[in-house]
Structure of Protocadherin beta-4-like:
Amino acid sequence: MLPFELLLSNPLQFFRVEVALEDINDHSPVFPVERFTFKILERSDSGTRFPLEAAQDLDIGSNTVQAYIISPENEYAQDLDIGSNTVQAYIISPENEYFSVSYGNRSNGDKYLELVLEKPLDREEQSEMSFSVIAVDGGSPPRSGSVVISIIILDVNDNPPIFTQERYIGKVLENMPEGSVVLAVLATDQDAGVNGDISYQLSQAVGQTDSAFVIDNRTGEIKITKPLDFEEAKRHELSVRATDGGGLSAICKVLVEVVDVNDNAPEVVVSSFSSPLPENTAPGTVVALFTVRDRDSGANGKISCGLEDQLFFSLRPAYKNYYELVTVSALDREETARYILRVTAADAGSPPLTSTQTFTVDISDVNDNAPVFNQTSYTMYVRENNVPTVFVGAVSAADADVGLNGKVSYSLAAVQAAEGPW
């Protein structure tokens, strides 16, 4: 309303005039800022309200703000894996299913505008979103103004770590030095910040020592703290726990297989051995029984046995890894009284390892040789009319046997006297 006074001079008259101005819709609603930013915890309850400052419109009456709506488009950022690269793309959703607007007048007449959460947010699905709230006046045609709403979704530790494999299998040579890497485990966590930070802890099965392994609690890399021994333990079963910064955890199994290295020479274990042997021992007689073994496995534990060149003895397989040392021909103590036999056991490793077992076989005497005189005949002369016990001569005989078998005794045998010529 615009009041003023009107004075006319002829005739003199005085008027009070009031001019009523009719509003036209020549102003659009305007929000006090161009963008509102909210940081909201994921999993916040549905129905949670977030106040907004209302839009202002210089027009009056029906030309001022009458309603608020949310732009149907919801734009949010999402990481996409393309080949070996990760890029951030902006996705447009055709409708906003997470938020609505509530507006009106309070009991005291003040106007209010609120953003209402319709369903819980999930940061792992989308970490940010943006949309517009539009204020519309009642003019004809209506005018509008908008403000951008940016939502940053804050992480809640609602995702435990997840290993890329339920079971990891690694192989390590038994002669690998301390500090060698066996393998690395990997767990991921969809949460962000501290809730997504993962640390690793290592434990070992009951009855196994855990001093042979150590894990890097940040990288998940498992190393050995000392050389492993295949012959002591062929495999080690470990348990790795991944824990995030919020206390959620996951467990995976790690199986470490120790690969054999040819580091053990064959062993010869003698079960029985007969010495001395009578020289009349029959061919095929068992002199010794022994077994061969190798703590290595595969080709490294496969053993072959051999006997140095011998005409009188040989090796004969008995049962599994047992061998017999047997005679193959008649023995003669008088020819050879002692045999030095060397058995060599070799594995099939590369290079092969060997061990040698020596058997000393003594040959005992058998009375198989008669005494032999050193002459086939003796001629002795004696004077007649000698006294008894006079020395006439001596004979000598030798026996190739030994001991009592080679001790010679002499006796005279009566023979018919030779007749002289008459």
In short: Residues 75-94 have pLDDT under 50 and may be disordered. Residues 68 and 189 are 39 Å apart (CA to CA).
